Amino acid sequence: MLAIVLSISLMVMDQQFQQLRQIRSVLAFVTYPLQVLAILPVSLMRWLDEATTTRKELQAENHHLREAILRARARLQRFESLRAENLRLRNLLDASYKMGNRILIAELSAVDLDPYRQQVVIDKGSTSGVFIGQPVLNANAVMGQVIQTTPFSSTVLLITDLSHSIPVQILRNDLRTIALGTGRINELSLPYLPTNSDIRVGDKLVTSGLGGKFPSGYPIATVTRINRSPDNAFAEIVATPTAHLDRSREVLLVWPVQAASVRPSVPDTPPETPAAGTPDKQP
Fold first, then answer.
1. What is the 3-state secondary structure (H, E, C) of 157-186?
2. Residues spanned by the domain of 273
């Protein structure tokens, strides 16, 4: 009874008054060795367990930890890839909104390894309404046009292929000309402008809409080099494509506005006389 009364009295005093804090601190310091002795058996057993762990078990644990780290890094890389893919798709959707035409998103499934041909294969074909001569773009600019279709894939001729030509105009002054592929992925040629033409380095080239293949106003390239020689009637002009032809993974297939409501089909025979912008030859 005395112990119970004393305990209740100490609890009340500790709750109502602050005088016992110092006493409690002293008692905690005095009883600390008792606490260490109380947990000593547990610490000793843990140390013995760690000391008797075999090397084989440590190697197995290390192996599992390394696998976990590798899996975590792989997931992190995939997340980064998904973030980049999401950004590309958002850019594509934004580009399609600006175009205002009927569009279809496709992905590259193969690249022609022939160094003299600039062609790629996409995963959409005639069953999706893709037709020969259809313009192909990415989020930045024109990439090329469809030259061959199958039910589930299509071959795209890039604007830098040697056999490709496209009517363009200079955005600054509407001067029209033809841009030809050079066979190099980062270079176009404008061989039909006289030496006294009003063209400068840095001028933007866009589609002129002539020939009926490519709608007007889509970016094509930027003039990067001009060589005017008095011995030649035409200037030597080189432009760099605006589209990232060697890096694009997703593309846009575009239908002209007047044909957007009609589902096009693959023609049985090619036209006798190709319009401007049609490749000179097909593989």
1. EECCCCCCEEEEEECCCCCEEEEEECCCCC
2. 102-283
Residues 126, 130, 132, 133: what is their CA dihedral angle, to the nearest 10 degrees?
A: 180
What is the CB-side half-sphere exposure of residue 224 using CA atoms within 13 A? Answer: 12
Neighbours of 260 (CB within 10 A): 14
The helix-helix angle for 20-51 and 2-16 (nearest 10°) equals: 100
Concatenated DSSP letters for 238-260? EEEESS-TTT--EEEEEE-GGGT
Q: What does the pLDDT read at residue 246?
A: 83
Segments of the chain scoring below 50 in pLDDT: 259-283
Residue 209's domain is classified under what CATH number?
Answer: 2.40.10.340
- In this structure, the number of other CB atoms found within 10 A of the CB of residue 192 comes to 14
**In this structure, are 36 and 138 located in the same domain?**
no
Long-range residue pairs from 73-82, CB within 8 A, at least 24 positions apart, any chain: none
| Residue 89 belongs to some domain of the structure | no
Cα-Cα-Cα-Cα torsion 273, 274, 275, 276, nearest 10 degrees, comes to -120
**What is the reported pLDDT for 147?**
92
Q: At a CB cut-off of 8 Å and minimum separation 6, what does 242 contact?
A: 140, 141, 142, 219, 220, 221, 222
Dist. CA 192–CA 161, nearest whole Å = 18
Residues with Cβ within 8 Å of residue 181, at least 6 apart in sequence: 118, 158, 159, 160, 161, 162, 163, 164, 165, 188, 189
C-alpha–C-alpha distance, residues 44 and 218, integer Å: 77
State residue 223's pLDDT score. Answer: 95
Bridge partner list, 250: 107
Say what the pTM is: 0.59
Give the pLDDT score at 271.
Answer: 42
